[in-house]
Amino acid sequence: MFFEIGRNLDEIVKRSKLSRGELARIFAFIKKEIEFIPFKEFNEYADRSLAIAPHKKDVHYFALALKFDCGLWSNEVAFRRQTNVKIFSDDELMRILKL
Prior knowledge:
Blueprint lengths: L1 H6 L1 H8 L3 H14 L12 H7 L6 H10 L3 E2 L13 E2 L1 H8 L2
Parallel strand pairs: 1-2
Helix pairs in contact: 4-5
């Protein structure tokens, strides 16, 4: 997840209108607050996830979503080609959160 954030940092800076320093502090806080879940706890969903994830690199995200019966936040168009996991775009989340 943090690799994806780093890879998309320029876009996050642009959209958030926050400085890199502000984002670094926010992500440091988030990282301390996240409970990392060992793969063995959601491995039982790996096969099903492999069948629905559009990219092999995203299998873990789909497996976690299946285990916890929750959606994923992504603007990745390919994610919407499956119907097992609800996908929320930036705009959808902004409407839900009334931002």
